[in-house]
Design brief:
Length: about 500
């Protein structure tokens, strides 16, 4: 028993000695004083990006935060983000993978969790040159437009229900349905939900896999950050194995369905699963990588779209002036006798600004996924030792008063006054990241968020629930890697177009 106690104590002392040596050797960024063994873990509040932004006010725009014995560096300004994502990108392009991320990604065989190297470069090239090209996005435009129209139809039916007349609806329910149907059709070429909202057997299995993945991914605790405690909290290997097998089984069934359809003369479709299967030999990628890429797209594209649009609608309800101005533009360009299409975006600059402002104030991933230093580098004049984990606080960067006028105000006009790129070229606005790890599907996300906001504004006038003022809308965030509204948005939708324009049009694929 004594030996069992001595070993972890000895390991802890060795780690503490090493960290003391690091502090003497390196000029590390300032930050809150860490506690022995646990570091700052007990000091970090659940909504981490806000916590880190507040610490940056006290310690400066680059801070050290200790997760147990691991140094995490958080930057909170556009200037420092540029140093991380451009000037030192070569040495900061690897991923830090938690034990759960390592298991789910099969130790980085996908794109999101892959380290920067030959595999990442190959898969990234495939995504850029084959999957997310303007040609393919245009070929799948009818899917996005049909699903957004289906959302409009569902909201209209809810409004037309005499029992619900004048009552508020839970906006998130409708947004999640369109995000779910859109991503499964784009990725798998399948719609798991019928027009009545009933999910079929494969769809229930898909939802079960997504839910279980979130559950087991969140099951790990402080031992993730304190290696010598891990023997007390072993990874649930069996649970991860079962989850991986379940995910692979469903995906391979769908892959085989597409393979058989092509053999029977159905031709190659534009869906991502078909594209990857036909490109498998050209890019020399394994089935594991195909499965990993498909689920990367699901992970990156499903929740984030619904989150972004819900935040946008909350801001539009809180700011009736902006809502009215966007609707006036839609009425002027689209009119009241037809519906919006993605081809109209170029003639709707204010709508595009509304989408951009929503993504600025409420990026769905407010803390960029962690980067790992593969060499000693300097950021902001401070040393970042090899092995450190670096985070860009996208939320704080987009609210920096040094580069944004009235940063906390929802004012889309700022993007009419100055065109700011949000696909990784301007470090003031980084909802999709930048540098080697920039999201390859940024344009797809922008298109869908803009389309959903445009249809919701064109078809309906939105107001807060009865007895509630616009400014009372709760803008608090839930903790997590992606940031939902803590209180789901409730609003009253009032139709503003002729009734025949609310019907979904089914398009053959």
């Amino acid at each position: 028993m004594a030996l069992l106690l001595i070993i972890p104590i000895a390991i802890a002392l060795l780690l503490l000695s090493y960290k003391l040596y690091q502090r003497l050797r390196f000029k590390l960024p300032p930050g809150p004083r860490p506690w022995p063994v646990v570091g700052n873990l007990y000091d970090i509040r659940p909504v981490r990006f806000r916590c880190f932004a507040e610490w940056a006010q006290s310690y400066g725009p680059i801070i050290s935060v200790w997760f147990g014995a691991t140094l995490n560096v958080v930057v909170s300004t556009a200037e420092l983000a540029k140093e991380v994502l451009k000037e030192n990108d070569q040495h900061l392009a690897d991923r830090h993978r938690s034990r759960s991320a390592a298991r789910v990604s099969r130790d980085g065989k996908d794109l999101i969790w892959a380290d920067y190297g030959p595999h990442y470069v190959k898969v990234r090239k495939l995504c850029t040159l084959e999957l997310f090209t303007p040609k393919r996005l245009e070929a799948m435009r009818h899917i996005r437009e049909e699903e957004v129209r289906a959302m409009v139809e569902s909201i209209f039916k809810d409004c037309a229900n005499p029992e619900k007349y004048g009552k508020s609806l839970r906006v998130r329910n409708f947004l999640e349905a369109v995000a779910f149907n859109n991503i499964t059709r784009l990725v798998f070429g399948k719609r798991f939900m019928n027009s009545e909202g009933v999910v079929n057997k494969q769809g229930k299995e898909f939802k079960g896999i997504v839910s279980n993945g979130i559950k087991i991914g969140a099951s790990l605790n402080m031992a993730e950050h304190i290696p010598w405690l891990r023997w007390m909290f072993p990874l649930e290997e069996e649970a991860f194995i079962k989850h991986g097998d379940r995910r692979d089984r469903l995906t391979k069934i769908i892959m085989e369905e597409h393979t058989q359809a092509r053999k029977q003369g159905g031709g190659t479709k534009q869906h991502f699963v078909d594209a990857l299967l036909t490109l498998q030999d050209k890019y020399d990628i394994s089935d594991d990588t195909i499965i990993g890429l498909l689920w990367d797209m699901i992970t990156a594209g499903m929740d984030t779209t619904a989150i972004s649009v819900e935040w946008g609608m909350a801001e539009l309800i809180r700011n009736p002036r902006v809502q009215q101005k966007a609707q006036e533009e839609l009425d002027r360009v689209i009119g009241l006798e037809r519906v919006l299409n993605e081809t109209d975006f170029s003639n709707l600059p204010y709508l595009q600004c509304v989408a951009k402002e929503a993504l600025r104030l409420h990026p769905p991933t407010p803390l960029m996924l962690p980067h790992r230093a593969t060499a000693d580098v300097k950021i902001g004049g401070y040393d970042i030792p090899k092995g450190s984990i670096v985070h860009v606080n996208v939320w704080a960067v987009a609210r920096d008063p040094a580069v944004w006028k009235d940063p906390n105000e929802f004012r889309p006009e700022r993007f009419l006054e100055e065109d700011v790129d949000m696909k990784g070229h301007d470090y003031r606005l980084l909802p999709f990241g930048a540098g080697r790890r920039v999201c390859p599907g940024a344009q797809l996300g922008i298109n869908l968020v803009t389309s959903m906001l445009g249809h919701l504004l064109h078809h309906f006038r939105w107001s807060p629930p009865e007895g509630m003022k616009p400014e009372d809308t709760d803008l608090a965030e839930s903790p997590g890697m992606v940031t939902y509204m803590r209180t789901p948005l409730q609003a009253i939708a009032t139709p503003r177009l002729p009734s025949h324009l609310y019907k979904r049009e089914v398009v053959d694929e």
